[in-house]
Amino acid sequence: MRDLNSRLPGAQNFRYKEFVKSSVATRLGIDNTPPGWCWLNIEKLAKYVLQPIRDEFGPLRILSGFRSKKLNKKIGGSILSNHCIGQAADIEPWRDKIALIDMAEFIIENLDFRTLILEYMPDGWLHLDYREDYNLNRIRLKDKDHNYENVTMEYVRNLYKEN
Q1: Distance of alpha carbon 108 from alpha carbon 120, whole angstroms
Q2: Residue 95 burial (C-beta neighbours within 10 Å; 0-12, 13-18, 19+)
Q3: What H or E segment, with its residue span, contains residue 117?
Q4: Could you identify which of 34, 43, 59, 129 might form a hypothetical disulfide with 88, taking C-beta atoms 3.0 to 4.6 angstroms apart as the criterion?
Q5: Order of strands, sheet of 125-129, starting from the edge strand that comes earlier in the sequence
Q6: Domain residue ranges of the chain, discontinuous segments joined by +
C-alpha cells in the first residue's frame, strides 16, 4: 500500500490519490485500492507517459486511473481493461486553451505508448495505456456511439482541422 498523499517517484507532479479516486466507487462503497503489484504499473505510466505530457502542457486532470474490476464492471467496462491493472489513464488538460489534438500529436511524436484513444473528439479526453515491454503506438478514435476505429494522426488532423 502506498501513502496516497505521496508523490510518485519520477513523476513528482502526481500523487497516488489521483490514480485511485473515483466518485462512483465512493458512492457505491466499492474499494478501489490497487493490489500491490499494480502500484508499479501506475508509477511507470506516470513517469514515462504522463509526466512528459505534464512537462510539455502543464497540469493534467486524471479523469480515471486505476479501476478495480468491480468498479470497471459497474461502469460498463471490461474486467480485462488496462485500467484494472494500473496501466491506463484517461486525461485532459487542466487549462481549456490546450487542444486535445495538440496533446495527441505530442504523444504520438514523442512518447512510447500501447494505445492512445481519442475519445469523443474534439472536446472529450485522451485514454492512454502503457506497458513497459508491449507498446504498439496504436491510435484509435472513439465516437459518441462507442465505436472504435484505428486511425492515423493524419486522418485525425483532417477530421478536426480548424476552419
Answers
A1: 18
A2: exposed
A3: strand 115-119
A4: 129
A5: 60-64, 88-93, 125-129, 115-119, 138-142, 148-150
A6: 7-159
Cell numbers linked to 103: 496533446
Q: What is the mean pLDDT of residues 95-116?
A: 93
Task: Quote the pTM value.
Answer: 0.92
36 C-beta neighbours (distance < 10 Å), count: 9
Which of 28, 45, 123, 111 is CA-nearest to residue 82?
45
Name the pLDDT band for 163 (thresholds 50, 70, 90): very low
- The single residue listed with the C-alpha cell 466518485 is 23
CATH number of 7-159: 3.30.1380.10
